[in-house]
Amino acid sequence: MGRLICLSNRIPTGANPSGGLVVALGDVLSENGGLWIGTSGETVKQPGTELREIKGGPFKRMRFDLTEEEHALYYDGYSNSVLWPLFHGRTDLMQIQQDYLDSYKQVNRRLAKMLAPIIQPEDRIWVHDFHFLPLAYELRTLGVHSPMGFFLHTPFPGPTAMQALPNGREICQWLSNFDLVGLQAERDVRACLASMVEIGEASDLGNGFVHLAPRQCRIEAFPISIDAGEFKTLAEQEIEKLPAGIVKPNRSLMIGVDRLDYSKGVPQRFRAFGEFLERHEDWHRHVSLIQISPPTREGVPAYDDIREETEHLSGRINGQFADIQWAPIRFINRPVPRAVLAGLYRASQVGLVTPLMDGMNLVAKEYIAAQNPENPGVLMLSQFAGAAEQMEEALIVNPHDTEQMATAMLTALMMSLSERRERYHALMKGLTTQDVHWWSKAFLTALG
Ligand code: ADP
């Protein structure tokens, strides 16, 4: 059996690497003498020509570093200011610039050149996410024939959105160089097939197979997940350690946890909560919303705007409704340790996961896994999260519809124990059967 070679934008660099992908892939990587490659997050003066090994850890890791210019053009530019907005239905936020695309291709070519010499014929290669769309194409050009799989952690755009991208056809061509293209949801498979056919001029061969000369690839959904059992145990332990004063008698908690990204629908959530408070004076002082949102991608202008908008809205709602004993929204602008998050999820009666567009949304899964089975909270979930395809027993909402969201908040807060339990058990069953180990196994089995 060959090795698994895994690529992702950022590589976990510590002595004990952690994070969702480490949980999913750690075992496979350490069993087969596998290899994980990614950027370190540090920038360098000159583009390197070799991968550098990261010492220690349970499996072999190799890093490559970006120059400052590559970071600005390839990463902040093409990846985060073109592909990310396009893939999240925000073509209006795309910043199309030729130097972004040039750098994106050049970084992928440089990576392929460093990678090709260390690939052995029986190795399997698993490329993660939108930073590396051209990687298989570049490797094939260098004569690498190994099986190559790609997993996109974001949604995939349909042909109408793809038309906004000057090089949409090229993206389809790049993708066809992978043997397997894994997406989060069936909706993404449909969109990708339609784009491959309409924009890439590929032939749809049925059963997820497309032919785009000279290659054939397979497109399939593999919904990513978490280790639900591990997260449940963590939440059970951590609820005991929450600081005093977070849980108050006669006060329900609603929680939102999202990077401060425009795709997450935080302003829409705040507006709906404002509407709820307008409608229900009897709930004043009896419910608070904790929104935990660390800033992200601070070099990209659209992220300054979303930060300003959310700060303004939370300030306005608190200004309108707060009194000396109660502020309706606690808006926390920093990361919180995973363990504390687990405890907070369990202490919250309602989990608000209301993105405008999201590949999967793991917070939805973490929230459910963290609940107390005897007295579970309610998940309010956007129909636009990939997770909604699997988590039908959540309270499904349309984040654009403020009135519906406000009504759903009341429904969630008032839901009977028996209904909460019923929904929780159905959701938890899904999470334990299709967890993160299932996900990586399903993908690698399909890759063959
Ligand atoms: P995305 O990958 O777009 O950020 P997901 O919901 O799929 O969205 O994954 C987010 C992950 O980041 C979850 O595991 C969540 O627990 C974690 N996370 C989000 N916000 C915070 C925060 N404020 N502090 C710590 N972890 C966070």
Can you describe what's shown?
By secondary structure, the chain is an alpha/beta fold. The chain folds into two domains: 4-225 and 436-447, Rossmann fold (3-Layer(aba) Sandwich); 228-433, Rossmann fold, CATH 3.40.50. It has 15 helices and 16 strands. The chain has helices spanning 20-31, 68-87, 98-115, 135-141, 159-162, 168-176, 186-198, 228-239, 266-279, 301-321, 338-347, 362-369, 402-414, 417-433, 436-447; strands at residues 4-10, 35-44, 52-54, 60-67, 124-128, 148-151, 180-183, 203-206, 209-212, 215-221, 252-257, 287-292, 329-332, 350-353, 378-382, 395-397. The chain has a ten-stranded mixed sheet with strand order 3-4-2-1-5-6-7-10-9-8, sandwiched between helices. Adenosine-5'-diphosphate binds next to helix 12. The site of adenosine-5'-diphosphate (ADP) has 13 residues, from helix 12.
